[in-house]
Amino acid sequence: MSQRMQWLLSGVMVTALAGAVGLVLHLLLNWPSVPWAGLLMGLVALPGAFGLSRSERLSASAPAVLVNVLVISGLVVIVGAIYIFVVVGLNGVPEDSAWASSCSTTSFVSNRLSTSS
């Protein structure tokens, strides 16, 4: 895959990641008011990635950037899915006093999943 395509794929992944974060926040906190707002904010990454793909100096770092974006995207999606499953699926959306226990439960489950491999 060419380095220009790797930069563009990184931009698409950042846009998708922003959309996923916006969707998770909408499901948990009902914020932002529309679930696709994160996707709109993430669209800023596409022109940035296109501009970076045109640079000869930065072309060598494209594979490393793509790998890091993929790792961070996977981590955010896994933690978001665990949080929605554990907190919302089992207990419902937590109130103000339950956020601390919800966060600790989610971090425990994600930590156990990451260390079990």
Structure class: mainly alpha
Number of strands: 0
Number of helices: 5
What are the low-pLDDT stretches, counting only 5+ consecutive residues below 50?
Answer: none
Helix content: over 70%
Number of domains: 1
Bulk shape: elongated
End-to-end separation in angstroms reads 30 Å
Radius of gyration: 17 Å
Portion in beta strands:
under 5%
- Mean of residue pLDDT values: 85
Order of helices and strands: HHHHH
Oligomer status = single chain
| Major beta sheet summary | none
Describe this structure in words.
The protein has 117 residues and is an all-alpha fold. The protein has one domain (3-115). The protein is built from five helices and no strands. The chain is elongated, with a radius of gyration of 17 Å. The two termini are 30 Å apart. The mean pLDDT is 85.
Topology:
Blueprint: H1 3-29, H2 37-42, H3 45-53, H4 62-91, H5 99-115
Compose a concise summary of this entry.
The chain is mainly alpha-helical and 117 residues long. The chain is 76% helix and 0% strand. It has one domain (3-115).
Annotation keywords:
117 residues; elongated; mainly alpha; 5 helices
